[in-house]
# Entry
Amino acid sequence: MRTGLKIAAFTAAAAATFGTAYGVGSAADPVVAGDEKRPAAHDEHAAAPAAAADTTPGGLQVSERGYTLDLERDRLPGRTGELRFTITKDATGKPLTSYTKEHGKELHLIVASRDLTAYRHLHPVRAADGTWSTPVSLPKAGDYRVFADFTPRGEEEGLTLGAGLGVAGTYAPAPLPPHAATARTADGYEVRVDGELRPGTASELTLGVSKDGRPVTDLEPYLGAYGHLVALRSGDLAYLHVHPHDGRPGPEVSFTATAPSTGTYRLFLDFKHDGKVRTAAFTVHAA
Ligand SMILES: [Cu+2]
# Structure
């Protein structure tokens, strides 16, 4: 069982767990059921490993469960350019063209710098042949990781594939910002995080948004939720995407999350206010 994305999205109090298999065989069975309409010769899961292999957190592998993230180029000549890629079905070598939408999109693309100081959440456009493309503008040169978060149609569980991306130019990796309970967005919003991330146990994180010292109570839905939270583990950039479990438009948005291990994580919260999506980032420790 992969990231538990659906559990988080559809079950109010459920933990979004990555790195925990819950139920031997449960990862394989829904795939078989969901693939009934496809001809057997095109069943790309025939060679998929057993459920036991699914304890790895998302985003660490370029290829998983019969799908591969193929970046057209794994380096960009500058900080601004176009990213093009396909999700290739290993069994046929062809791009995947049918997806189940999650939060209004067939695919969510996260681009994060290896030093965890730069972050982009993008929604590429898919051509009929399965090629995805999006303009990308990054704040600095260096090593990045690209995460594709999607659910192939007919499958119960989504998956997140990750690939490296190099951006040409002079690169000075930054130290991870220290732990702090509050973060300020580039445009003056203050976000406070309450609660702790715990390894192997679900815990609640509450993020409170204010502007000019006043709580924001009119957050706007962004992709069907008042907040989207991505956690990346420092060191290997293991990926966890969680969704809020209450429907209030602020000032507080709560998430239930489970860290796959002790360690340091960088949290990125996307929220929408005054018609614009804004991002606040935090460094937290799970211990
Ligand atoms: Cu998205």
